[in-house]
Design goal:
- The chain is α/β, with parallel strands linked by helices.
- It has two domains: 236 residues, Spore Coat Polysaccharide Biosynthesis Protein SpsA, Chain A (Alpha-Beta Complex), CATH 3.90.550.10; 70 residues.
- The protein contains ten helices and eight strands.
- Helix 9 packs antiparallel against helix 10.
Length: 323
């Protein structure tokens, strides 16, 4: 039988003191089960990434490491870098220590029992295994409608994303090494990982309610995340501006012809309402176009500066890592 390989779990945390002990307990139980079945090596670890939390999240991570150094490690970011940067920080910290890594959130909404299937799919030769939601029964109608609409819209915009997949995935060490070559500051891992290629598959699970605490992704952050994903992986919005401009040009020609005919026919008094509506429509389209262009210019500005995506203040682990 093939020697079991090393699995590292990367769990980003932001103000998760209410759920962290339960998450650690369940992950430890899962690890012990996987080790007893020789599916993962005893060198496997769980790495909690503290993303600049304002509560006692980092203190709890330190306590978990001190109590169970053979199971729990921690990465402490110097400031809040955002969910995607926290995930990347954890992955890059452990890429030389593991054979495979799984990322999942700390809120216990992702089904921990799905880890078994992910590891088995990895041993079958898959370099990437995506955790995909089989249903959205726990979501509100608004959340379900907007989330599914986002994935469909991303497809229309030309971004290669896995439908109903968030950031619950397994990646091999080879994939992590290739991911390290992506240097962009504006991270959208759901789009970046499929770009790497290699053999991949999906496993399906039902997402649960949060065990405790509040969602760290309110509507405002969800919209910002969606805009970042679209503008990071598609230039179609820019092309859409050109299309709308051409359409408005055609409409203006038709309007000119109509006005000329009305003048000849003696009906030259034009309504104030139609004039004002035209001005507001054209002005609104111009501002929308400038806004879309501004999104891309802003991204170029951030990329050109090449500031570090995250800064690691502390890394507690019983192995040496290449950070």
């Amino acid at each position: 039988m093939k020697k079991p390989e090393i699995l590292y779990m990367v769990v980003p945390c932001y103000n998760e003191e209410e759920v962290l002990h339960e998450t650690a307990k369940r992950l430890k139980e899962k690890y012990e089960s996987l080790m007893s079945r020789d599916l993962i090596s005893e060198k496997s670890r769980v790495v909690f990434v503290n993303d600049g939390s304002k509560d006692k999240t980092w203190e709890i991570i330190q306590e978990l490491h001190e109590a169970e150094p053979a199971f729990f490690s921690g990465v402490n970011l110097a400031h809040n870098a955002g969910h995607q940067n926290a995930v990347l920080a954890g992955l890059m910290s452990v890429k030389t220590l593991c054979d495979m890594a799984i990322t999942m959130d700390a809120d216990l909404q992702d089904d921990i029992n799905t880890i078994d299937a992910m590891v088995e799919k990895y041993y079958e030769g898959n370099q990437v295994v995506y955790g995909v939601r089989s249903a959205r029964d726990t979501d509100t109608f608004f959340k379900r409608f907007t989330a599914e609409g986002f994935y469909k819209f991303m497809k229309v915009m030309g971004a290669d994303v896995v439908y109903n997949h968030a950031d619950f995935r397994l990646m091999s060490r080879r994939v992590l090494e290739e991911l390290a070559n992506f240097k962009e500051v504006n991270l959208f891992l759901r789009g970046m990982v499929p770009l790497i290629g290699f053999q991949s598959c999906s496993v399906y699970y039902e997402r649960a309610e949060r065990f405790a605490g509040e969602s760290k992704y309110p509507l405002k952050k969800m919209l910002a995340f969606a805009i970042n994903g679209i503008t990071s992986f598609s230039t179609k919005p820019l092309k859409l501006i050109t299309t709308v401009g051409m359409l408005m040009f055609v409409i203006s020609i038709i309007a000119f012809i109509w006005a000329f005919i009305a003048k000849i026919a003696g009906h030259s008094e034009l309504g104030w309402s139609s004039t004002m509506c035209s001005i507001w429509l054209i002005g609104g389209l111009q501002l929308l176009g400038l806004g879309i262009i501004g999104e891309y210019v802003g991204k170029i500005y951030a990329e050109v500066k090449q500031r570090p995506r995250y800064i690691i203040a502390d890394f507690i682990n019983d192995e040496d890592a290449d950070i």
